Give the backbone structure.
Amino acid sequence: MATIVRKRLLIEGWRHLAHSYALVAQAHCLSLLKRTKMDLRFRELPYFASDWKPTPGLFAPGEERALDGIPAPENEFEPDATFTLRPERPEFAAPRTGRRLALATAEYRVLLAEHRSGLRSGIDVPPTVDIVTPSHWSALAFIRFGLASERVHVVPLGIDPAVHRIDPVLRLGMRQRLGVGEDFLFMSVGAMTWNKGLDLLLTAFGRILETHPTSRLLLKGADALYPSKTYVAEVMNDLPAQTREAIARRLIYVGGILPAAKMGELLRAADCYVSPYRAEGFNMPVLEAAACGVASICTAQGPTDEFTDEYSAMRIRSSIGAQPLSPTETGDVLVPDVDHLIALMREACENPAATRARGVLASRHAHQRFTWDRVTDLLVERMFGDGR
């Protein structure tokens, strides 16, 4: 019988945390555990903030047991590849053995000095270290930093087809619990920071209520990691009093941590997902909403162009602008056309059948091309050339 040669892979990141990097690490691990040619280890990295706490129950019980069962690397374990998922500052240090692929995102298409580990340019990055980033939009930052394009690997994020799928029964149940009835429900998910375009969304929704007063807006924040609810309050306070009061009557805010399955149900309840973002490394909620059969309205020219198409997403016209990020550094931002955003939101709620049809196409597209197994195949190819 032929001996199976197993590739030794070390994942460095977080488990049991509702942060995008932790969710990505765990999703890849669950896919990698299916592969007989993979000898997998997991090293926990320190949390980015001291007040962050682990949150069990984000995945199904069997999946969490599988994740917990991945052993830490023994002293004698010599990985062929190390995949490091550390936000803000990529891990540029050479690995002890093999090669390192460091996950990194750059929403503003520039790598700030504070995130360069003291290196002057990509020329100083050890030859055994490459970057993995989820979009071509983000990849430009690392090429600008001086890394050769062949050392910057674009591997998109993915969806769990068992969680992110069309299910009319579960959709109806969640809508009943939310109390939205037959109202047209817009939705947006995220930290509610400036780059997400919350101010643009609330301004546009206020305008929508002038002609479609029964519309609703669901915002899903991340209160355990960011002051999302405070950001919403600050933007609301900047609106005219009459607009603020109208929105408050039609706004649903959810800030708590939800397991993946419950998050899928919440997304599925929406009629249209709206993301007028200014800067994103990928924008995973747009993909997850699409997989659940929810059409999206999102900023054109950004990373969402890379995983949506014109049939499943309505794209907000935008231009590219400059955003000061420090006294000496400037990044790229998208400047969405607010009037076009309002027009697209109005079109979505005035033509609900067409919006639902877009959602069906969006789900088909996501399930065909962006499951976690498919994107993990791509990651493995970038690491080893095979390894399934």
Summary: The chain has twelve helices and 14 strands. The two ends are 19 Å apart (CA to CA). The chain has two domains: 7-158+372-384, 168-369. The mean pLDDT is 94.
